[in-house]
Design goal:
Blueprint: H1 8-11, H2 13-17, H3 19-34, E1 37-38, H4 46-50, E2 58-62, H5 87-100, H6 111-115, E3 118-122, E4 127-128, H7 140-152, E5 159-163, H8 165-168, E6 180-184, H9 201-211
Parallel strand pairs: 2-3, 2-5, 5-6
Antiparallel strand pairs: 1-4
Length: about 220
């Protein structure tokens, strides 16, 4: 079955044994054996693998993985070094520069953030090549809802950054008053000018963390 390799394994064991997940698993086996699916099956759970439950300070929620060749690697909005940054990621870097004066890096891999406690979680963790939202409604949403509920239960103040309608739909799961929920338009070129640019979510996240005695995120990417 699934082996993430940290605290998420025990926390999500009931989900991975549930009927909906077993159905999802059978669906994925058929998809990966007959179509081109992203990310690589060994990268599906990288968001949880890179950021254990107890380390999470902030959560960025995306829609589903990039659907172009070589782009998705299990972290929302991130691409591996050597892969051109998609337009949504370019807009994230533009907002980061406007907010904190941090220049865009020469690559789009966001693993530096994950090591500091930023969980880069898509709502849906797999996708067919060239077909956005093609794995929507197959069960992933139930699993990622469970992840957010587990984080909501924690005492440690956490920031949830919800960009776009799919991410904002998760807001109903975040009921603990200790946490901060930040919402904005999606950073895609179609919507970034409708409220993503100027949202200042990076500095707001750090102000909240510092006000709660937590180390802020260094948003620079090396």
């Amino acid at each position: 079955m699934v082996h993430i390799g940290n605290s998420w394994d025990a926390l999500l064991q009931d989900e991975f044994r549930s009927e909906y997940y077993l159905k999802l698993r059978e669906f994925l086996k058929a998809e990966y054996s007959s179509r081109t699916i992203y990310p690589n099956m060994y990268d599906i759970f990288n968001s949880l693998r890179y950021t254990p439950y107890e380390n999470v300070k902030a959560v960025i929620i995306g829609q589903d993985p990039y659907h172009g060749e070589g782009q998705a690697h299990g972290l929302c909005f991130s691409v591996k070094k050597g892969v051109a940054a998609p337009l949504s990621l370019q807009n994230i870097f533009k907002e980061l520069q406007a907010d904190l004066g941090i220049s865009a890096p020469n690559h789009g891999e966001l693993t530096d953030w994950t090591r500091q406690g930023v969980l880069l979680l898509n709502s849906v963790l797999t996708v067919r090549a060239g077909q956005p939202n093609s794995h929507k409604g197959m069960g992933w949403e139930r699993l990622t809802d469970a992840v957010i509920r587990l984080l909501n239960e924690r005492e440690q103040p956490t920031v949830f950054l919800l960009w776009g309608a799919n991410a904002r739909a998760k807001a109903v799961l975040i009921t603990n008053p200790k946490h901060l929920v930040l919402t904005a338009a999606h950073p895609s070129p179609l919507s970034a000018y409708n409220g993503f640019f100027g949202c200042r979510h990076f500095s707001k996240t750090n102000e909240f963390l510092k006000s709660n005695g937590l180390e802020p995120i260094d948003w620079r990417i090396s």
